[in-house]
Amino acid sequence: MSPETRPEARVTNVLLCGIGGQGVLTAAELLARAAVAAGHDAKKTEVAGMAQRGGVVTSHLRFGPRVLAPAIPDGEADLLIGFEAAEALRWVGQLRPGGTAVVNGLRVKPPVVHQGLFAYPDDPVGALRARGLDLRVVEARDIAESLGTHRLMNTVMLGAAADLLPLSPADLRALVVESFRVRKPALADLNGRAFDAGRTAAADSLGGAGGTAGETALGAGAVATPMASAAD
Amino acid sequence: MNALTEIAAGGRVLLSGNEAVARAVWEAGAALATAYPGTPSTEILETLARYPDVDAQWSVNEKVSLEVAIGASLAGARAFCAMKHVGMNVAADALMSQALAGCHGGLVLAVADDVGLSSSQNEQDSRYWGRFAHLPMLEPADAQEAHAFTLAAFALSEEVGCPVILRLTTRVCHVKTVVAVGERLAPPPRGFIRDPRRWVMLPVNAKAMLPKQDARDATLRALAEDSPLTTELEGSDRSLGLVASGPAALSAREALPEAPILKLGQTWPVPVDRIRAFGETVDRLLVVEETEPLVEETLKAAGVAVLGKDVLPRHGELSVRVLRDSVARLRGAVVADAAPAGPDPDVFPRPPTMCPGCPHLSPFYCLSKLRRGVLIAGDIGCYTLGAGHPWQAMDTCTCMGASVTMAQGLAMAKGGEDARKAVVAVIGDSTFLHMGMQGLLNLVYNRANVTVMILDNRTVAMTGGQEHPGTGFDIHGQEAPRVDFVALVQAMGVKPERVHAVDPYELPALFRLIRQETQVPEVSVIITNQPCVLTDRHTPRPALTVVEDECTGCGSCINTGCPAIQVTRRETTTTKSGHSKELAFVRIDSAFCTGCNACVETCAPNAIVPLNPAAHPRLEKV
Lengths: 232, 622
Description:
The complex is a heterodimer of chains A (232) and B (622).
Chain A: E1 12-19, H1 24-37, E2 41-46, E3 56-64, E4 77-82, H2 85-91, E5 95-104, E6 107-108, H3 111-114, H4 124-129, E7 134-138, H5 140-146, H6 153-161, H7 169-183, H8 188-204, E8 215-216, H9 220-224
Chain B: E1 12-16, H1 17-27, E2 32-35, H2 43-48, E3 55-58, H3 62-74, E4 79-84, H4 85-101, E5 107-113, H5 128-133, E6 137-138, H6 143-160, E7 164-169, H7 170-173, E8 175-180, H8 196-199, H9 203-225, E9 231-233, E10 240-245, H10 247-255, E11 261-264, E12 266-268, H11 272-279, E13 284-288, H12 294-301, H13 320-330, H14 361-369, E14 374-377, H15 402-413, E15 422-428, H16 429-445, E16 451-455, H17 485-491, E17 499-502, H18 507-518, E18 524-528, E19 544-546, E20 565-574, E21 580-588, H19 598-602, E22 608-610
Parallel strand pairs in B: 2-3, 2-4, 4-5, 5-7, 6-7, 10-11, 10-13, 14-15, 15-16, 16-18, 17-18
Antiparallel strand pairs in B: 1-8, 6-12, 9-11, 19-22, 20-21
C-alpha cells in the first residue's frame, strides 16, 4: 500500500454465504470483477480448503476507492447474499444496522441433522424476517428449475442482488453473460434469463411472504462440481 | 497462445496472492518451480503450470521439493519452491544445512501460514525459520505486495547469495485484489560453479562457513534497516505508534486510521534501529504481528520498550474488530467482551462432509462396525473426516505419514484392555507417497503387526485434486510413470498374500477382508481402488432410490455417512425387549446419488433400489 493512503472513502461490504459447492465463490468472483470493471479497488476473500466439502462457505467482497483490510469488519456488512436459508441466519449478525439481506429460501439439511445430532431451524426465513431487516427472499432453486436446471441458482441469486449494489445491474448482467459466453456459450442466454428472473423475484419479494422451500441433499450436486459456476 | 502471458506489462488484473506470486516467479525468469500441494499455498504451482518457460512440477513431499529447487539454484538458474507452513517442517533438514552454504541462482521459498487454522493441524508462525536459519523473511500484506516482494526476493537472494523466504498467510494467498503486473525477464544463465568447499557440507567445510554466515547476517541486518519494502504511514495521533506486518498491517490501518504505522515488509532480520527511531516519535509502541511475538521479543531483547501480545491475542487473525477493541482497552476504555458478531452460535454446525459416493465412505463404515476391536491411526486428507460423525473411526491424526508410524508404536506398546485390539493405519495415496512409505518399510522391518489401509482415490483430493506419482499424470496433465502400489509394498517386504487391492464399493467383501486382516498377526496392506468422485476418473453409476413402503426406519444406511441420504420422518417405537427405539425413515436425493451401492449393502429389507432398474445391471439381484 502506498504510504499516503487512508481509508477515508466509503467501502461497500458484501458478505456471501452458503454451502461448499453451491457456487458462492464463483458468484463473489463475478461481483468482484464487476466492481473492478466499474473502476473500484476491491478485495475478495474466502475461507477455502476443508470448508468446501459441503461445509460452511463465506466470501467477503469489499470495494470502493481504496480497500485496506482483507475481511469485512465484524458487523459492518452492507449486504448479505445468502445462498441457503439457515446459512443466512448463521451470518446475519454480520450485517450493519440498516443493512440488507437477499436470501435464497432453499433449505439444505446437512448429514449431522439427518443423523439426529442437531436440529435444523423450523423456519429460518421467518427467523430472519423477525429481525426486522430489509430482507428479500427468493426461491432461487424453483426459479432455476423452471428455467431448466437447478444449476442456474447462483446466477438467479446474482440477479436478485443486482439492484442492491452500487453497481450497474446492466453491467453486472453483461459480465455474467459474457463469462458464460467465453466458457459455455450454449448457456450464456439462459444465464441472462436466470439473472433477469432473480432480479424480478427480488423486487417482487418486498413485503411478500417467504415461499415454501424445497429440500435437497447438499449443495451436493454442487459438490459433484465444486467451484463450478451456476450453469455447468 | 497463453492467456496468462498475454496480460501485458503494466496491465492491472484481479489476482489472488497465490496467483500474484506465480506471476512474479514467471516474470523473475525462474527456470524451475516445485511444490507439494497444501492449503493455502496450492494455487501458486497450479498457476505456474499454466505459464510457459518455467518447469513447474509437483514433488512427492516438501523436502524433495526444496532439494530439487536447491539443485536448480546451484545449476545457476532462478528457482522457486512453495509449501504450506507444516511443509517447511518436512523441508527443514534441507533448509537448515543449505542456509549455511547459501545458493547460486536466486532461490525463493514461499511458505503459507494458515492463520486461523481453516485447513491445518496447527497454526505455527513460519517467520521463526528466518531467525533459525539466518535467512531473510519478506512479509507481503496483499496480492500486489506479494507480486512486488517476490521479485524483490529473487534480487535479494542473488545479491546476498542465500535463499529468501516469502512468508504468506491465508489472507494473502486467498484474497484477490487488483495487481499491476510486468514482463518476464530473462536472467543470463550463471552456470554451475564447482566449489566443493561450499557445496559439500563436510564438517570441516561447514565449520569454515560459520564466520561467513556471521558476515552475511551483518549484511542482511544492514539491508533490512534500509529495506524499501518497509514503509512508514503517517498518522495524526502520536500517542500510539504501530509496528505491523502482513495483512494485519492493513487491518490496523483501517481500525486505527489516526495511528502512525511502521509497516515492516521484512520481518527477519528485524530492523531494530529503524523501529527504535520510529518509537522515539510516538508515546507508546505496539507490535501488530500474526501470530507469535517474533518482532516483539526481538525488540524487547534489544531494549526497545514495546507492547505486543500483552495487548493483542496470541492466536488467530488480527482483524479490524480485534485491533479496535484491544487498543480501546489499552487506552482504558471498557470494552464489553460481547460475542463477536461472527457466525450465530445457535445455528447447527455444518461440518465438511464426504461426498455422495466417496470411496472413503465404506472403509469408514466398516471400521465403525469394528470399532470396539481396533485402534485406528489416521492421517492427513479428506479421510480425516472419518474422525467425525457418523463413523467416529479415528483415534489419532498428527502429521503427514504419521498414521503408519504411530500405528507401529501403538501396536508395540498397547496394553491392558487394548492388548487384544488390532491396530489399523488409514492413509491416502498421496500421503502414503509423501511420507508413509518410509513408515511402512520401518513397520515391516521391525516386524510390527498393523493393518495398513491405503485409500487410493488417485488424486490429492483435499487440496482440490492434484496429480502425484500414483495417478500416472504430471501437473500439466501429461502422462507420467505411475507407481504400482501392490508391487511397491511387496518390494518393502509385505508378504504377497497379505496385500489386497479391493473395490471399496463391494462393501461386504471389504468388511470381511478388514476383519480377516486385523486378525492376522503380521503386517497387511489393503488398498482401495475407486477414484475420487470429484475427478474425471470417476464414472457415476445410475442413481438409487428408496422404496418408501419397504423402509423399516432402521437407519443403517445413514451410518454410511453419505450426504445424499436424507431422513424424511422419525418415529419412536418399543422393541420386544421393552426398550424404546428411534426410527429414521429415509429417502435418497437421486439427483446427487452416484450409484456407488454402499447403502444398498447396509439395507436389510432391500428397500434401496435403482431409480431406473434397467440402467443398473449391478443391482439386478435386488
